[in-house]
Amino acid sequence: MDTTPSHAAITFREVSKTWPQRGGAVAALDRVSLDVQAGGITGVIGRSGAGKSTLLRLVNGLERASAGRVEVLGRDVTTARGRELRSLRRDVGMIFQHFNLLANRTVRGNVALPLEIAGVARPEIDRRVARLIDLVGLGALADRYPAQLSGGQKQRVGIARALATEPKVLLSDEATSALDPETTQAVLALLRDINRELGLTILLITHEMAVVRDICHHVAVMEAGRIVETGETYDIFANPQDPVTRSFLSGVTGTVLPGFIARRIVPGGDGPAILRITFAGDSATHPVLSRLGAELGIDASILGGSIEEIDGRPFGNLTVQVPADALPRAQEYLHAHDLRTEVLGHVG
């Protein structure tokens, strides 16, 4: 369950960002409003060009909004300049997709860099750097250079560096998209631990719904510079409203059908119906299919399924085949038991 505080650490209010271009301006963001809850992990997902990277860069003033207001920890980033902006940026750490490490600095030197820039005394730098390197599990590699590290190790250095100024907000710019699946899981586990142990607010952008599923408490879905859907991650997975959201979810919650079935599915027709059933919360463990047969006499053939955990709660999908003439009764029965259904087509 999500137990993060209810107040926002970051707020976007009617935020727009346009880029001048020959023939007229191009809108990267179009009147975006969003609250990022303090102490939680919020994911922003969208396709390339959706505006998510621009949204992230507004938080630490790397970009300026063309209209609207962005507040971080109660301070207006939109109007911050000079010393005020530098102070705000110390409260906002950022980790990058391609690590952005200095090749001529060791792990220790890369982590120390933001503290040196901030003018922190050397004894304090040494203390923080040693603690952070241990926190990210690189204590034995402190004197290695980036060229001697794996991708996952480089990202851990990037995370330690982002935490050096003891920020209250951590931004993640596609931090795992350049990593293999196993390393991705390790980095996500580290971010979860940091969120839990340090109470950091984390705002991450991604194009992978699996990342949202594995780490986020809340999610905002972007398309063409706008937020089309937002809410708690579990609720979005259990009951997506927008077609863009459903298209993202199909890759992580859709059951893969056997090829000989998938090739025969047609949008309409009077052949057997292929029905996807979503189980959420308490319903995830209910024996509804056996009841479907016992109470309604409907034979449902299981084609595939999965059950997993999202934000501490069970969530599952089951794809079944039912006779076409029984489809309305089956859906009515399943909906009465708080299950969501989707007709994928009919077997032609």
Describe the structure.
There is one protein chain. With 348 residues, the chain is α/β, with parallel strands linked by helices. The protein has two domains: 8-240, Rossmann fold; 254-347, Alpha-Beta Plaits, CATH 3.30.70.260. Helices cover 34% and strands 30% of the residues. It has twelve helices and 15 strands. The protein has helices at 52-59, 82-90, 107-117, 122-135, 151-162, 181-198, 209-215, 233-238, 243-253, 259-262, 288-296, 327-336, and strands at residues 8-19, 26-37, 41-46, 67-72, 75-76, 92-95, 169-173, 201-206, 218-223, 226-232, 265-266, 273-280, 301-310, 313-322, 340-347. Helix 5 packs parallel to helix 6 (181-198). The radius of gyration is 24 Å and the shape is elongated.
Helices and strands in order:
Layout: E1 8-19, E2 26-37, E3 41-46, H1 52-59, E4 67-72, E5 75-76, H2 82-90, E6 92-95, H3 107-117, H4 122-135, H5 151-162, E7 169-173, H6 181-198, E8 201-206, H7 209-215, E9 218-223, E10 226-232, H8 233-238, H9 243-253, H10 259-262, E11 265-266, E12 273-280, H11 288-296, E13 301-310, E14 313-322, H12 327-336, E15 340-347
Helix pairs in contact: 3-4, 3-5, 4-5, 5-6
